[in-house]
Predict the 3D structure of the following.
Amino acid sequence: MNDNIHILSHPLLQHKLTILRSKDTSTKDFRELVSEIAMLMTYEATRDLPLEDVEVETPVAPGVFKTIAGKKLAIVPILRAGLGMVDGVLKMIPAARVGHIGLFRDPDTLEPVKYYCKMPADIAERDVIIVDPMLATGGSASAAISFMKEYGCKHIKLMDVLAAPEGIARIEKDHPDVEVYIAALDDHLNEHGYIIPGLGDAGDRIFGTK
Ligand code: PRP
Ligand code: URA
């Protein structure tokens, strides 16, 4: 694995992820946990945001302090399951814009099929964080990154809760420039392209569609 792959092993993330994996976790709890995990992952994935100095007067003295340097950010969830991470990211970066990419994975070919796309008008000037809970074959994430590059985006990060080695290898090969943040790297994919041990179908569990 190259240096662009970051496994976020914070105890709070690991604890919440274990609850997420359980087949007995309800839709309500699953949705809340995905949001909380996204919030904690954003904290880690934004460590490299540049800072600049600002002058501020506290109630007792003036001073020079740090603020995030005018970086423009956009969060891009891959529909549907990526939607479950948006509010968690926005809690940390409230001024971020949100672009949407609709992709579903064809159950037979496992190839991503695009059905929707809507981006902020100035997306090419923004740093992008693509969010999706699952990086399985990596087909969906690789296609989403390629779309963002076609829009002119130059700084792209990918944030997934869970990944399979196959998905990580795909992103390393197709997009070696992209920093990837995951909370855990699982064992393998099964014959249906599901992450093992994984957590099942993230979209169905977030939205209660099964
Ligand atoms: C899931 C998941 C990813 C994709 C990962 O979406 O949310 O987008 O599969 O698989 P891959 O790495 O092999 O491409 P799914 O196609 O189930 O759509 P959904 O989010 O609408 O449920
Ligand atoms: N998509 C999911 O939602 N779960 C998996 O395990 C693989 C792809």
